[in-house]
Amino acid sequence: MTMSSKAIYASLLRPPVLHILRAAGFHATKPAVLDTLVDLTARYLSLLASNAAAHAQGNHHDLILTVTDIRMALQDVGAIWPQKSAMEEDLMGEEDMRGFDNFLKWMMGDEHREIRRVAGWIGTEAPLPGIDESAGREDFLTALKRKHNKTGESSRFQGTVLGTNAEEKPILIEGGPVESLQDWGRILRKTSAEDNTPPSREPSSALTSCTGSPLTPI
């Protein structure tokens, strides 16, 4: 990841961290403190994602995440606690659900109601300032993009980290033997493969005549 991409993702992570601080009751913070919290949040999410990918690769040999992979990654980072080991669960004959139940209570409790409202999980009678919520339940980033973009997301954010991927269009070449860059690339690869092929050579008559002759002692 380059420095520019790190700066982009850090900037995108700052608003969620600010909303979490606001929902927790904080009204102001110093820039250095905010940068530290953003860095810690990024490291935590990176650790969670890498652990989930490792569990997915070990469980079903691909990177398509399942609920089990996410649960195991949450256990690795200590988000689901207390939790008995798999050996202890096998000895007891039942699955330990205490950590998972506590995690759900922590996520869906009243203390995180404001965070869920900002994230668009629940409706509220007090909308976010300057954001029209008449379009339905949506997260704050989508609402802000819709507010500041009057021409449509596809025309302004397409091809960026905030929008959809840009559609690849063929580039036509005029006045040449080929019509597109793809055809030109295929011709170059074919020519390069032919140039790298070693020429076949017939055996010389001298070597042929030596076949089966006795060896000369040294």
Sum up the structure in keywords.
55% helix; flat; 218 residues; mainly alpha
Give a brief rundown of this model.
The protein is mainly alpha-helical and 218 residues long.
Stretches with pLDDT under 50, minimum 5 residues: 124-135
| Succession of helices and strands | HHHHHHHHHH
Number of helices: 10
Q: Give the radius of gyration.
A: 31 Å
Distance between the termini: 64 Å
Would you write up a description of this structure?
This protein has 218 residues and is mainly α. Helix content is 55%, strand content 0%. It is built from 10 helices and no strands. α1 packs across α2 (31-60) and α2 packs across α3 (67-76). The termini are far apart.
Write the layout of secondary structure elements.
Elements: H1 3-23, H2 31-60, H3 67-76, H4 86-92, H5 98-108, H6 113-119, H7 140-148, H8 153-156, H9 181-195, H10 205-209
Helix pairs in contact: 1-2, 2-3
